[in-house]
Amino acid sequence: MRYSRLKIIFPIGLFLALFLDGSLSNVFAGHLFSYPYSSALHLVLLWLIFAIFLDDRDDLAVGLWSGFVGLVFDLYYTGVVGVYVVALPLIVYLCRQIKPWLDLNFLTLLMVYIINLTIVEAFVYIWYSMSNVIDGNLADFAVYTLGPTIAVNLAIFVILYYPVRRLYFSVN
Amino acid sequence: MQKFFSNRKLVIAIIVLIISFGLMSVSVAIRDKKSTPPLIQQFGNDVAGAVDRVVALPVNGLQGATNSVSDLLNTYQENQKLKKQVDQLAQAKVTAQTTSAENKQLRKELKLNDSLSNYTSVTANVLTRTPSSWMNQLVISKGATAGIKKNMPVMSQSGLIGRVVEVNQTNSKVELISNTSSTANKFAIQITNKAGKTVNGIISGYDKSANTLEMGSVTSNVKIKKGDKVVTSGLGGTTPKGLYVGTVASVKQDDYGLASEVEITPAADLSDLTVVTVAEQ
């Protein structure tokens, strides 16, 4: 497959991930948000991280698209602008910085994903609690939200890692 | 040179964070105003909603299919149970019909055209749920063009589930009653006991662990028992009277021992929503 085709597949996959996040959250609401645990899906973040680390050419406009998809997330899902629109490009920037130092394999990428999930969830938590959108203490956040979120998303990571890697190998 | 470079990055980072925080503060501050969201945001949301329909439809279809399979497995037991209820229902329906006809007649004689309990309903599909641990919000498939306005109450087939918080042209956002944040709007409700006496109050919170709504600061002497029906009271203007909320689960003293607190089991299952009804007064 030609590389140019990836430039079309990447944004389409990104928006598919965005809307699947919401749809699957609704369908599995009983499982994802059962008290006291609540876990959010992060397919968008997963797709971004795959694009940054699996694409060897670094020729996709990941930063730009991540900002755009973050804006759509803020407007469409939450109505509070300025949270994901900053969080996602921040993640892309950080990943681009650490990429040269990483020996890329399944486990290191898994670690990177855990760290990025933590950063995004913490960023969103701090931002929302500063503007009084939510009230909750830090311990509850770590145990009942961050933990289950990482668990659920790691499971999805394990399932999707090999198919997506194949896609990127076929173009590079 | 190196130092200057890192300083510049720091400045950029701080500016970005300030802009982000500013945007967020503004959008939180203007969230409750009637005129929001602004047209451009509405347009963006409408486009996103249109694309979302393409993704949401197959996923919802898949959910429908799995639901039908599990329904099929439970059919026998359900049938037994429902048969018993049907006989009682027919009677209740006839009584309700006669009373509502009588009610209409009496209202006409009193020249009462608008009552608190009158409303028309708009049915909408649930497109998606906010994939966040912090916001219990849904996006539904009807908006301003279908006559939906801010603060309208939203129900599932079985009872009240929340209210509309943001209206675009073709879709709108619904905040569920399980949202406990301090900015959430509260519903005015009414409990009627077996003797016909009523107690008014507002939904003051949601207890996640027991999945119950709380109605706090009740100082009335009216005896409320487990199983008493709870409906919206229609006070406060935007919500019609008589929307079913749930039943009383328990009554207990509040933390200070002065007033009592009523726990209410919501009639609707907040984690399984595919079609909702918006009540329009």
UniProtKB/TrEMBL annotation, chain A:
Pfam families: MreD (PF04093). Coiled coil: none annotated. It comes from the Bacteria. GO terms for biological process: regulation of cell shape. One of its GO terms (cellular component) is plasma membrane. The chain crosses the membrane at residues 35-54, 75-94, 106-129, 141-162. Keywords: Cell membrane, Cell shape, Membrane, Transmembrane, Transmembrane helix. The keyword Transmembrane helix applies. It is a multi-pass membrane protein. InterPro entries: Cell_shape_determining_MreD. It is found in: Cell membrane. NCBIfam families: shape_MreD. Belongs to the MreD family. This is Rod shape-determining protein MreD.
TrEMBL record, chain B:
Residues 126-279 form the Rod shape-determining protein MreC beta-barrel core domain. Residues 72-109 form a coiled coil. The keyword Coiled coil applies. Pfam families: MreC. Keywords: Cell shape, Coiled coil. It comes from the Bacteria. GO terms for biological process: regulation of cell shape. The keyword Ubl conjugation does not apply. GO terms for cellular component: plasma membrane. PANTHER family: CELL SHAPE-DETERMINING PROTEIN MREC. Belongs to the MreC family. This is Cell shape-determining protein MreC. The gene is mreC.
